[in-house]
C-alpha cells in the first residue's frame, strides 16, 4: 500500500470516528453528556474525554459509566468549586442529575465505592481482551521498527507532496 493510500485510509477512519462520536468542527463533542461541558471547564479536556467514554460504554457497563461520570463531576468541582464560570452550575446540576438517574437504574440500593477502582481495572482488562489491544500495539511496534510508519503526520505529508 502506498503512503498516499495509507494517509487516505487514516483520514477516512478519523472522519468516520468523528461522525460516530459526534464532534463539531473544533473536535469538541456535541452529543451526549460530553457535548454540554461549558467553556469555563474546557481547560481540562479530560472532562470531555471521560464523559465521552461514559457515553460510549453506558450500554456495555452502566456501573463503570457511573464511576466515570462521578469522576468528571469531581474534576469539574475541583476546577470551579463555587460554580462561578459561565454555564458551570447548569452543567454540574445536569451531570448530577445524570448520575442520580444511573444510580436509580441499579437493582440494589447501596454502592460500595471502595470497589470502584477494582471495577475500572476489570473493565479495562476485559476491554483490552475484547478489542485485541495488546496484539494491535505489538503490530504497531513492529511497523514502527520496520520504518513503515513514523508516527509523525507532518513528515508523512511532506514525503507524499
What is the helix content? Answer: 55-70%
Low-confidence stretches: none
- H-E string: HHHHHHH
**Average pLDDT over all residues:** 77
Cα Rg: 19 Å
Shape: globular
Largest sheet: none
Task: Explain what this protein looks like in three dimensions.
By secondary structure, the chain is mostly helical. Among the domains are: 31 residues; 79 residues, no CATH class. It is 65% helix and 0% strand. The chain contains 7 helices and no strands. The longest helix has 19 residues.
Write the layout of secondary structure elements.
Elements: H1 3-21, H2 45-57, H3 62-79, H4 88-104, H5 116-130, H6 133-146, H7 153-160
Helix pairs in contact: 2-3, 3-4
Produce a short descriptive summary.
The chain has 161 residues and is mainly alpha-helical. Helices cover 65% and strands 0% of the residues.
Question: Which properties best describe this structure?
Answer:
mainly alpha, 7 helices, 161 residues
Amino acid at each position: 500500500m502506498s503512503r498516499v493510500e495509507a494517509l487516505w485510509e487514516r483520514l477516512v477512519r478519523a472522519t468516520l470516528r468523528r461522525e460516530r462520536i459526534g464532534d463539531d468542527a473544533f473536535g469538541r463533542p456535541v452529543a451526549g453528556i460530553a457535548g454540554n461541558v461549558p467553556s469555563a471547564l474546557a481547560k481540562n479536556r479530560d472532562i470531555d474525554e471521560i464523559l465521552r467514554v461514559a457515553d460510549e460504554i453506558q450500554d456495555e457497563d452502566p456501573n463503570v459509566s457511573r464511576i466515570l461520570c462521578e469522576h468528571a463531576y469531581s474534576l469539574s468541582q475541583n476546577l470551579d468549586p463555587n460554580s462561578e464560570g459561565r454555564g458551570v452550575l447548569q452543567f454540574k446540576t445536569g451531570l448530577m442529575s445524570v448520575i442520580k438517574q444511573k444510580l436509580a437504574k441499579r437493582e440494589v440500593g447501596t454502592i460500595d465505592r471502595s470497589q470502584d477502582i477494582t471495577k475500572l481495572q476489570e473493565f479495562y482488562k476485559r476491554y483490552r481482551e475484547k478489542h485485541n489491544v495488546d496484539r494491535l500495539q505489538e503490530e504497531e511496534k513492529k511497523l514502527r521498527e520496520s520504518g513503515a510508519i513514523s508516527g509523525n503526520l507532518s513528515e508523512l505529508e511532506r514525503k507524499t507532496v
